[in-house]
Design goal:
This protein is an alpha+beta fold. Helix content is 34%, strand content 24%. A six-stranded mixed β-sheet has the order 3-4-2-1-12-11. Helix 5 (121-132) links the parallel strand 1 and strand 2 (136-142). Helix 1 runs antiparallel to helix 2 (46-62), helix 2 packs antiparallel against helix 3 (68-77) and helix 7 runs parallel beside helix 8.
């Protein structure tokens, strides 16, 4: 076998580094962020690691080099993660009168502070909800300020916090709510609301969550500030902020996990997790539930408006007793920094 050129030796060295980093990222979802808070940030870049390993695999394959086995094995080991990032196809199910639709949407206070240069954001959101007509609507960062008319939902549970600016989570339902409550997280403005909803003879527990934000914004100005901070040697502060948020999310996920353990009904967990599907937090919140995107999604399933990266941080998890017939992320509907997600479900 011919010796590698100096260039290929350098490429193979980078390949080895990438393999090690990717393998660490594979392990991190099983390790609490409090143990390795800085390393936990790697889970945010898992899709990039897949792509880079695939490029290395093709690079060596074109040259008929056996070094392609290295990235090939890494890709094979991570094959179970790929469906969390991209779905190549979706099943089709017949319609049934027992089907019901759940929508989750972080509305960013209905543009209260004019982040978007539009005056009709609340009305556009209302029109969108009326058009899609979900049976259960879960809203994060809800605000009463816009006074949108959701009277089509006779049953609701809204939990608001804050002094001057009231914000919170809301569940709107066409089906009766027979019980409701909320989970307040320590040292945080984030929380979870839940409602026990009676659909026919069945009772379903719906959780609407909003976990701690890692405070990375898609806004051009804030991204510029982050770049400037990096140029000034302050990137460690950004990593510290993200790792601190991950530790808070871990605590919040464990509180939610403990709460849902006592639930005797089939459950749905909706909302803004502020973390990727490759994280420890995702594993704890999802538990043995189904991820609606993995069950019936298509494409990237992007839920957050982040430039150049199809981030998926909003979820609809459903009980194993339910069939996910359809899932959609409306990434062309730009009236918040998040996109609405919707699932058509059926009780088995």
């Amino acid at each position: 076998m011919k010796k590698l050129s100096w260039f290929n030796r350098g490429m193979f060295f980078l390949n080895i580094i990438l393999t090690i980093v990717t393998f660490i990222a594979y392990i991190l979802p099983f390790l609490a962020p409090k143990m390795f808070p800085i390393l936990s940030v790697l889970t945010l870049f898992m899709p990039a690691f897949f792509i880079l390993n695939a490029l290395f695999f093709m690079y060596w394959a074109i040259q008929f080099k056996k070094r392609m086995v290295l990235s090939g094995l890494v890709l094979l080991m991570g094959i179970t993660f790929i469906n969390k990032f991209y779905k190549f196809s979706a099943k089709e199910f017949p319609k049934d009168e027992k089907d019901f639709v759940v929508m989750s949407y972080n509305v960013r206070l209905l543009n209260l502070f004019k982040w978007l240069d539009k005056e009709d954001v609340p009305q556009e959101i209302l029109s969108f909800v009326n058009e899609k007509n979900p049976d259960i609507l879960c809203i994060q960062e809800f605000s009463n300020s816009a006074k949108i008319d959701l009277k089509v939902y006779p049953h609701k549970h809204i939990f608001m916090t804050g002094d001057k600016i009231k914000t919170g989570q809301a569940i709107f339902s066409k089906f009766p709510i027979i019980d409701q409550g909320n989970i307040v997280f320590p040292n945080s403005n984030n929380n979870v609301v839940y409602a026990d909803i009676k659909k026919g003879k069945d009772i379903i527990r719906v959780y609407n969550m909003h976990l701690q934000s890692i405070k990375i914004s898609p806004d051009v100005n804030e991204i510029s500030e982050n770049i400037d901070a990096i140029n000034q040697g302050k990137s460690q502060m950004m990593l510290f902020r993200i790792s601190k948020a991950f530790k808070q999310q871990q605590e919040q996920a464990e509180i939610l996990k403990e709460h849902k353990r006592d639930c005797k009904y089939p459950m749905i967990i909706c909302g803004d997790m502020n973390n990727s599907a490759f994280s420890y937090v995702y594993r704890n919140v999802k538990g043995n539930l189904k991820d609606s995107f993995e069950e019936a999604g298509l494409g990237f399933g992007q839920t957050y408006k982040f430039r150049y990266y199809p981030a998926r941080i909003d979820y609809i998890f459903v009980d194993n007793s339910m069939i996910v017939k359809e899932f959609e992320s409306f990434y062309n509907f730009e009236n918040s920094d998040h996109y609405p997600v919707m699932a058509k479900l059926s009780l088995d």
